[in-house]
Amino acid sequence: MSDNRLIVALDVHCMDDMKQIVNTLGSSVSFYKVGMELFYAAGEQTVTYLQKAGKSVFLDLKLHDIPNTVAQGVRSLTRLGANLITIHGQGGPVMMQAAADAARDEAAKLGIDRPKLLAITVLTSFDDSSWTSIGGQLPIQDQVVRLAKLAKANHIDGVVASPLEAKAIKDACGSDFLIVTPGIRPSFAATNDQKRIASPASALADGAKKLVIGRPITKAADPIDAVQRIIKEMESVQL
Question: Which of 115, 160, 212, 234 is the most buried if burial means most Cβ atoms within 10 Å?
Answer without folding.
Answer: 160
